[in-house]
């Protein structure tokens, strides 16, 4: 499949869904520092995929994909805190964690195709 624009990248599409879900989940949170860190990490996933793609070189794209993958791990780490601090319930944790992990795996697959 040829990618004509970053919006065609499945990991970007799913990162956008994750970001919106996180914003909605924590919209009433009074812990602004926590909320901001989690939202910034989620936005970082989708924005690094987009920016890397627009750089037009595989080398730079890979570099940005690794950053996006790291941001996905940051989201998962923050989700553990959110769960342990009772900011989200088990169902919310599972939904958000699973989506973040799926995104990370998709990014890994994209990185592997760029190394080929």
Describe the protein's architecture and organization:
With 116 residues, the protein is mainly α. The protein has one domain (6-115): 23S rRNA-intervening sequence (de novo design (two linked rop proteins), Up-down Bundle), CATH 1.20.1440. Helices cover 79% and strands 0% of the residues. Helix 1 (10-25) packs antiparallel against helix 4 and helix 2 (32-54) runs antiparallel to helix 3. The chain is elongated, with a radius of gyration of 14 Å.
Topology:
Blueprint: H1 10-25, H2 32-54, H3 58-84, H4 90-115
Order of helices and strands: HHHH
Q: How large, in whole angstroms, is the Cα Rg?
A: 14 Å
Name given to the CATH homologous superfamily: 23S rRNA-intervening sequence
- Report the portion of residues in β strands: under 5%
Overall geometry: elongated
Structural class from helices and strands? mainly alpha
- How far apart are the termini? 15 Å
CATH secondary-structure class: Mainly Alpha
At the third CATH level, what is the topology name?
de novo design (two linked rop proteins)
What is the β-strand count? 0
List the main descriptive attributes of the protein structure presented here.
116 residues; mainly alpha; elongated
Briefly characterize the structure.
The protein is an all-alpha fold and 116 residues long. It is 79% helix and 0% strand.
């Amino acid at each position: 499949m040829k990618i004509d624009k970053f919006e065609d990248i499945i990991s970007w599409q799913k990162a956008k869904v994750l970001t919106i879900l996180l914003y909605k989940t924590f919209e009433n949170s009074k812990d602004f520092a926590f909320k901001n860190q989690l939202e910034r990490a989620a936005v970082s996933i989708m924005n690094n995929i987009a920016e890397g793609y627009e750089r037009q070189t595989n080398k730079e794209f890979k570099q940005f994909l690794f950053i996006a993958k790291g941001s996905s791990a940051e989201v998962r780490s923050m989700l553990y805190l959110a769960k342990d601090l009772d900011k989200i319930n088990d169902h919310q944790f599972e939904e958000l964690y699973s989506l973040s992990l799926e995104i990370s795996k998709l990014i890994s697959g994209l990185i592997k195709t760029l190394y080929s």
